[in-house]
Amino acid sequence: MLYQPLTVFESIMSESPLRTPAIPVTDPEAGLRLTEVFYSLQGEALTSGLPTIFVRLTGCPLRCVYCDTEYAFTGGERQSLESIIETTKRYPCKRICLTGGEPLAQPNAIELMKRLLADDYEISLETAGALTVENVPPAVSKVMDLKTPSSGEEDKNLWSNLNHLTQHDQIKFVIMNRKDYDWAKQKLFEHKLDKLVGTVWFSPMFNVADDIGEETSLDVPILARELAEWLLADALPVRFQLQLHKIIWADAKGK
Ligand code: SF4
Q: How far is Cα 63 from Cα 67, in angstroms, rounded to an integer?
């Protein structure tokens, strides 16, 4: 089953924070449920290392086994689009990463992107690839996951999203083991992903708290090295990445 964003009234009480009573979520006046806004260095993809304002929206219909932002599944605070934009203006930066959770779970995310573009922000959108990206403004650079088998959410990949990607966009695979790598390699060739988007990223699953904290485990460094070696052996037209922010700040919230 594919998850779809709520488009009428949020009226069902459940674990989803998007489902608060009687809020017309497609009405721009209803704003967005927001987990946090913070300023940091971009930790991944093509703008890695650049100062960036992160706008993290609340809620996600997926439950990837490696998720590092579970705190964004629930809670948050509903804010008007104007209020969110005013907050972004406090930072000395015109680059925004809209992230989550899954930003597209709230339809008003589209309107927020339009308004930020009108204010001359450069925007990237981190999306899980389970909800349609059809209505995302073309000027926004989509960084779209394709969920690997080990994520536990492979069946949520909305493959028709590939029809809406261009050279301005990027695709990311989070690799947990050789099975994921082989799956991602097969999808790369099957869909000619390297021709479809500007960059395809292969990233080893990386959980600092478990893997390079005090209880050091060698699993992740080994996986990172293995992935690097698999990529070299196959000479795949993709780019390897580690998440910078995790190396610098571990899993600190707001970094
Ligand atoms: S899509 Fe992203 S935010 Fe949602 S569960 Fe997966 S990793 Fe977490």
A: 7
The response to whether residue 100 sits with its C-beta less than 6 Å from ligand 1 reads: yes
Placement of tokens 């869909």 in the chain: 191
Ligand 1 atom showing the smallest separation from residue 61 Cα: 4
Answer whether 147's CB lies under 8 Å from 156's CB.
yes
Cβ pair 160, 132 in contact under 8 A: yes
pLDDT tens digits along 171-218: 999 999 999 999 999 999 999 999 999 999 999 997 655 544 444 444
249: which 2 tokens?
A: 């700040």
**Cβ neighbours of 190 (radius 10 Å):** 8
Q: Which atom of ligand 1 is nearest to the CA of 153?
A: 6
| Whole-prediction pTM | 0.86
Nearest CA owner, ligand 1 atom 6 = 64
Give, in words, the CATH class of 9-249: alpha beta
Q: Which atom of ligand 1 is nearest to the CA of 73?
A: 3
Distance 42 CA to ligand 1 centre (A): 18
Q: How far apart are CA 83 and CA 70, in angstroms?
A: 24
> What residues does each domain of the chain span?
9-249
Distance 63 CA to ligand 1 centre (A): 6
Pocket flag, ligand 1, residue 35 (CB < 6 Å): no
For 15-55, the pLDDT digits (tens) are: 444 433 334 467 788 899 999 999 999 988 889 899 999 99
